[in-house]
Design goal:
The chain contains four helices and 44 strands. The protein is mainly β.
C-alpha cells in the first residue's frame, strides 16, 4: 500500500512540474532575504499579484537536500498591527542539519497549476555552535534575528543604538536557550511601548546573558491588558543565568487597567526555580499606577524570586507606587518564595532604595475558603518585601520610605495590614537573616484630610516582621510619622514582639539593636547592648553604650558588610 501511495505522489509531482512550463503569469514573487541559522532558515519575500492570479494560501517553500525533499511549508503574511495590512511575507523552516547545503523553491498555484517563481540555494551556518564559535552581532537587525535560532551562542561586536527602533519584545512565544555575551558593549536608547505578557529586552530565557551594559532604556505601558504581566528591563521571565550586567539611566512606567498579578523587577520580572543572578548593577526608576485589582510584586532587581539565587549585586532604585489592591515591594526583591522545596538565596547584595507609597485600597475579594472578605496586605521591605524559605546573608538595605497615602475604602473590608521594614517586610517559613544591615528612614506626608479610613494595623520596624532565624540582623532606623492607624507599632527590630503596643502619636529617633544576647550593636551615636539575665525566665536588660569603632567591627563577621556600611 505504501509503494502505491509513493508512486502516486511521484506521478503527481511530475505532472505538476510539467504544468509549470506552460503557466504564464504577471504575478511576481521575489526573495528579500535568506537568513540561514544553524538548524533553520528564515526567508522574507515580496509577493506582487496585481491581477489576483495566485490561489489564496498556495504560496509554498520547498526545501531539498541532494534533490530529496526535506520539508515544505506555506508562506505566511506579515501584518501591520496598526492598520491590519499585509506588509510582507515570511517562512521559517526548522529542524535542518548544521552546516548542510540545501536548495530552495518557492511555488504557488495559478489556474490550478503549480508555478515555480524562485530557485535558490543556501547553507545552514556552523557559527553559534559553541562559545568559541559564536554568531557575532553588529547591527540591530542581526539582534532581532536571534529569534530564528534560539539555542545559538551570540556575541556583540560593538554597541547597539536602538534610537528610533519600534522595538517589540523578542522571545515571547519561544524561550532563548542559548548564550548571549555582550562582551562589555552597550545596548542603548531602547524604548518599549508595546505591551505583551512578557515585556522586556528578552521576553523569556532559559539560557545565559553575560557581560552586557544597558543604558537609557525605557518601558512605558498604558491602557488595558488581559494577561498576567512579566516586566523587566532585561528579562520578563528568567530561568537561566544572568551575570556581569550593568543597567544605567533606565526607567519602567506602567499605568493600565488590569485585574490579576503583575511581576515587575528592574532587571527581571519573575525568576523561575534554579535561576542565577550574579554581579548585576542597576540604577533605575520604577513608577507604577493602578486603580484596579492589580496585585503587584515589585523589586528593584526582581519582582518575584522562586527558589533562585542573587549574589554580589547592587541596585540603586526609586520606586513610586500608587496602588488600589494588595502589593509586595522590596528594594531588591518583591516576594522571595519557593515552589520546589529549595530555598531562595540572596548573598552579598546591596539596595539603595527610595520608595514613595500612595495606597488607597479600593477592592477586596471574597476568600473561596472562608467566604469572607480576604485580608489585604501592603508589604514594603528595604531589601525584600516578603520571604518564604529564603536565606539572606551578608546584605545591606539603605532605604527611605515616604508614605503619602494609606487608606482603605473597599466595601466590606476585612483585616488589613501595612508593613514597612528596613530589611524584610515579612520574614516567614524557614527564612533567615545572617550578617545583614539596614539604614531606614520612614516619613509620612499625609494631608490632614486624608487621615481617615485607616489600615487596621501598621507595623514600622527596623529589621523585619515575624521571623524564622536571625543572626546579626541590625541597623538604624529613623522614623517621623503621624498617627494613621488604630494599631500602630514602631520597633527597632521585630514588629510582633509586643502584642498590645501603645499607639504613638509620633516617633522620631535613631535605633540600633539586634537579637543577639551579649554583643554590642553599634553604628549610631547610641548603641544598645542586650544582655540575657536569665535564660530560663527569658529576662533581658538593655544597656545604653557609646559608639566605638571597635564595637561595630566586633559585631559583624562579614567583611562585605563592614566595607559597605556608612
Amino acid at each position: 500500500m505504501k509503494k502505491i501511495f509513493s508512486f502516486t505522489l511521484l506521478l503527481l509531482g511530475l505532472f505538476l512540474v510539467s504544468c509549470d512550463k506552460g503557466v504564464k503569469t504577471t504575478a511576481e514573487i521575489t526573495i528579500k532575504t535568506i537568513t540561514p541559522a544553524r538548524d533553520s532558515v528564515y526567508i522574507s519575500l515580496d509577493v506582487v499579484d496585481v491581477d489576483k492570479e495566485i490561489t489564496e494560501g498556495s504560496v509554498t517553500a520547498l526545501i531539498k537536500e541532494e534533490n530529496v525533499e526535506v520539508q515544505r511549508k506555506a508562506v505566511e503574511a506579515i501584518m501591520d498591527d496598526d492598520n491590519e495590512k499585509v506588509i510582507g511575507y515570511k517562512v521559517e523552516i526548522t529542524g535542518l542539519k548544521v552546516g548542510a547545503q540545501y536548495s530552495l523553491e518557492i511555488f504557488a498555484t495559478i489556474d490550478k497549476q503549480l508555478h515555480t517563481f524562485v530557485k535558490e540555494t543556501f547553507k545552514t551556518s556552523t557559527a553559534g555552535s559553541s562559545i568559541n564559535d559564536p554568531k557575532y552581532i553588529s547591527t540591530v537587525e542581526e539582534f532581532l534575528l536571534m529569534e530564528t535560532d534560539n539555542k545559538a551562542f551570540y556575541k556583540l561586536s560593538n554597541d547597539l543604538d536602538f534610537e528610533g527602533v519600534d522595538y517589540r519584545t523578542i522571545f515571547v512565544r519561544t524561550r532563548f536557550e542559548g548564550n548571549f555575551d555582550g562582551a562589555g558593549f552597550t545596548i542603548k536608547n531602547l524604548k518599549i511601548n508595546d505591551r505583551s505578557t512578557y515585556t522586556s529586552l528578552f521576553g523569556r530565557i532559559n539560557g545565559t546573558i553575560t557581560n552586557l551594559k544597558i543604558d537609557n532604556m525605557t518601558i512605558t505601558l498604558e491602557g488595558v491588558n488581559k494577561h498576567s504581566q512579566y516586566i523587566g528591563l532585561l528579562v520578563g521571565r528568567h530561568q537561566g543565568t544572568i551575570e556581569n550586567v550593568e543597567i544605567t539611566n533606565s526607567q519602567i512606567s506602567t499605568n493600565f487597567n488590569y485585574t490579576g498579578k503583575l511581576y515587575l523587577g528592574g532587571v527581571v520580572g519573575y525568576a523561575d526555580s534554579d535561576s542565577k543572578i550574579n554581579n548585576v548593577d542597576a540604577d533605575i526608576v520604577i513608577n507604577v499606577q493602578s486603580t484596579t485589582q492589580t496585585e503587584f510584586f515589585i523589586g528593584g532587581l526582581v519582582g518575584y524570586l522562586n527558589a533562585s539565587n542573587i549574589e554580589e549585586s547592587n541596585v540603586n532604585v526609586s520606586i513610586s507606587l500608587e496602588n488600589s489592591y494588595k502589593s509586595i515591594v522590596g528594594g531588591v526583591v518583591g516576594f522571595s518564595n519557593t515552589t520546589v522545596n529549595r530555598p531562595s538565596r540572596i548573598l552579598k547584595t546591596k539596595a539603595n532604595a527610595t520608595m514613595n507609597l500612595s495606597t488607597v485600597i479600593r477592592y477586596n475579594r471574597t476568600s473561596q475558603e472562608t467566604s469572607e472578605p480576604e485580608s489585604i496586605e501592603v508589604i514594603v521591605g528595604g531589601l525584600v518585601g516578603k520571604t518564604i524559605q529564603t536565606e539572606v546573608k551578608e546584605s545591606i538595605a539603605i532605604s527611605s520610605v515616604n508614605i503619602n497615602k494609606a487608606r482603605v475604602i473597599a466595601v466590606g473590608k476585612n483585616s488589613n495590614l501595612l508593613v514597612i521594614s528596613g530589611l524584610v517586610g515579612i520574614l516567614k517559613n524557614n527564612s533567615s537573616l545572617d550578617n545583614t544591615y539596614y539604614d531606614m528612614t520612614v516619613k509620612t506626608n499625609i494631608l490632614e484630610e486624608e487621615l481617615k479610613d485607616f489600615f487596621n494595623q501598621v507595623y514600622i520596624t527596623g529589621a523585619f516582621n515575624w521571623s524564622s532565624t536571625i543572626n546579626k540582623a541590625s541597623g538604624k532606623m529613623n522614623v517621623d510619622v503621624v498617627n494613621f492607624a488604630p494599631i500602630m507599632q514602631i520597633t527597632p527590630l521585630n514588629g510582633v514582639i509586643i502584642e498590645t503596643p501603645e499607639t504613638p502619636l509620633s516617633s522620631n529617633g535613631d535605633y540600633f539593636s539586634s537579637n543577639i544576647k551579649v554583643e554590642n550593636v553599634v553604628y549610631v551615636d547610641k548603641a544598645l547592648l542586650v544582655v540575657e539575665l536569665d535564660p530560663d525566665l527569658h529576662t533581658f536588660e538593655v544597656r545604653e553604650l557609646l559608639l566605638t569603632k571597635t564595637l561595630m567591627d566586633n559585631y559583624y563577621t562579614s567583611e562585605f558588610v563592614k566595607e559597605n556600611i556608612n
